[in-house]
UniProtKB/TrEMBL annotation:
It comes from the Eukaryota. Pathway: Nucleotide-sugar biosynthesis; UDP-alpha-D-glucuronate biosynthesis; UDP-alpha-D-glucuronate from UDP-alpha-D-glucose: step 1/1. This is UDP-glucose 6-dehydrogenase. The keyword Transmembrane helix does not apply. GO terms for biological process: glycosaminoglycan biosynthetic process. It catalyses: UDP-alpha-D-glucose + 2 NAD(+) + H2O = UDP-alpha-D-glucuronate + 2 NADH + 3 H(+). Coiled coil: none annotated.
Length: 475
């Protein structure tokens, strides 16, 4: 094992691999960092002026390091073969068929990457789990690595180094992380591998923020972190339903409980639901692991976080329909925001998709505007069968492309519309000229604020009928 790292390869140039390695390269000019991917289109984009993902501050980091010690390549085998440390940041989606379908993590990409690492390795390597994986994955990966490498002198040490960045704030999170977690085996070679990886992060992360743990704790910490974050969202969303039923205001409740230092104020915004590629998949994975270990009560507990999230999206759709006199058939509804959160163009598992599907199911016409999501992406997402509410088969995805228009201008999207639905918390939505929008809309004009970001009092003064999550209803 090389005591010092000279070259890093990262398999997977996605939302995690790209930004993470760009930061490593920026902060470690003495290390060559090559991000590799089998997706040549993505690699081409990483080498161009138009990066494949939108993330505030990412362009600057990539431009500062690219060509110096940061490279993007589709020559996967060569760079992996030459590396001292191989990060694996491939996708670990939910299995769609077979045993564990709908819950278990699909480790096919990971296994493929491990077989390839083993086959091209002529020197010993540290293999780092950057992807989010089920607890005990390192055990399986170790078997794949050892049994597919023909050179007995080549040693592999597996570390778990889960990534805690959040899309939309990835660069800030990577530059000043709350913590970096490194899990390794409690053996001399395991400890030495941990030290090598620590030495990389120590280029910019204060030593007290680099935590070490055993492999299984590190793997489980990532699933647990996402489960806790999603649980907070589902918890406050469940209270939002109670607020609407009683006249309490979820904003006031959140503020009151958030000032308790044991609870804290973050992640307490009621919303139309959480999305993104990770929360749901990681909780379902946790549920599956618990089930396979015979921990049914624990599995049921975490499964409720996902079912409350589905309930919140369903509730939102039903409220729109109910408020608009029980029919939205043929009515034009303006959807503001399609990304799963602000400051990203990512639509994976976005709640907007489920809400739009629900509205289309009741025959609405949707005019969609998002500052960063492309028209093609929105059409592709809405054409893909995906979501069923609690009753499978009760909602089928709409393929009525003529019911969906994607606009580049929010004012155009609102013209002649019956209602605005805010589904992503983009800052620009707060700054619109709502008098102008109101004047251009059908009356009564509704606002359904699925993120509680607009000034509801002001909107009411203009004339809108406003529905906000967890807030007293309009008289
Ligand atoms: P992604 O789909 O954007 O990127 C994964 C990339 O891996 C793809 O470009 C794919 O082509 C590539 N790939 C797959 N198999 C490969 C192989 N054998 N060789 C080379 N390339 C291969 O996924 P992502 O969002 O970057 O997530 C990656 C992992 O990180 C997942 O496990 C995810 O759960 C975890 N994670 C994601 C986030 C997030 O915010 N997106 C945050 C923390 C952790």
């Amino acid at each position: 094992m090389s005591p010092r790292c000279k070259k890093i390869a990262c398999i997977g140039a996605g939302y995690v691999g790209g930004p993470t390695m760009a930061m490593v390269a920026l902060k470690c000019p003495d290390i060559e960092v090559v991000v590799v991917d089998i997706n040549e289109v993505r690699i081409k984009a990483w080498n161009s002026e138009e990066l494949p993902i939108y993330e505030p501050g990412l362009d600057d980091v990539v431009k500062a390091a690219r060509g110096r010690n940061l490279f993007f390549s589709s020559d996967v085998k060569r760079h992996v073969g030459e590396a001292d440390i191989v990060f694996v940041s491939v996708n670990t989606p939910t299995k769609t068929r077979g045993v564990g379908a709908g819950k278990a993590a699909d480790l096919a990409y990971w296994e493929g990457a491990a077989r390839m690492i083993a086959s091209v390795s002529k020197t010993s390597k540290i293999v780092v789990e950057k992807s989010t994986v089920p607890v005990k994955t390192a055990e399986a990966i170790e078997k794949v690595l050892r049994r597919n490498c023909s050179d007995p002198a080549v040693q592999f040490e597996i570390l778990s180094n889960p990534e805690f960045l959040a899309e939309g704030t990835a660069i800030e999170d990577l530059e000043r992380p709350d913590r970096v977690l490194i899990g390794g085996k409690e053996t001399p070679s395991g400890r030495s591998a941990v030290e090598v990886l620590k030495s990389v992060y120590e280029h910019w992360v204060p030593a007290e923020r680099i935590l070490t743990a055993n492999l299984w704790s590190a793997e489980l910490s990532k699933l647990t972190a996402n489960a806790f974050l999603a649980q907070r969202i589902s918890s406050i969303n469940s209270i939002s339903a109670l607020c609407e039923a009683t006249g309490a205001d979820v904003g006031q409740v959140a503020h009151s409980i958030g000032t308790d230092s044991r609870i804290g104020g973050k992640f307490l915004n009621a919303s139309v639901g959480f999305g993104g590629s990770c929360f749901q998949k990681d909780i379902l994975n946790l549920v599956y692991i618990c089930e396979t270990l015979g921990l049914k009560q624990v599995a049921d507990y975490w499964a409720s976080v996902v079912s409350i999230n589905d309930y919140q999206k369903q509730r939102f759709v039903e409220r729109v329909i109910e408020a608009m006199f029980n029919t939205i058939s043929g009515k034009k509804i303006t959807v503001l925001g399609f990304a799963f959160k602000k400051d990203t163009g990512d639509t994976r598992e976005t709640p907007a998709l489920d809400v739009c599907q629900g509205l289309l199911q009741d025959n609405a016409r949707l005019y969609i505007y998002d500052p960063k999501v492309t028209e093609n992406q929105i059409h592709a997402d809405l054409a893909t069968p995906k979501f069923e509410w609690d009753h499978p088969g009760s909602r089928t995805p709409s393929r009525k492309q003529d019911s969906i228009k994607v606009l580049q201008d929010p004012y155009e999207a609102a013209q002649d519309s019956h209602a605005l639905c805010v589904l992503t918390e983009w800052d620009e939505f707060k700054k619109y000229d709502y008098e102008r929008i109101y004047d251009s809309m059908m009356k009564p004009a509704f606002v359904f604020d699925g993120r509680n970001i607009l000034d509801h009092e002001r909107l009411r003064k203009i004339g809108f009928i406003v529905y906000a999550l967890g807030k007293p209803l309009d008289p």
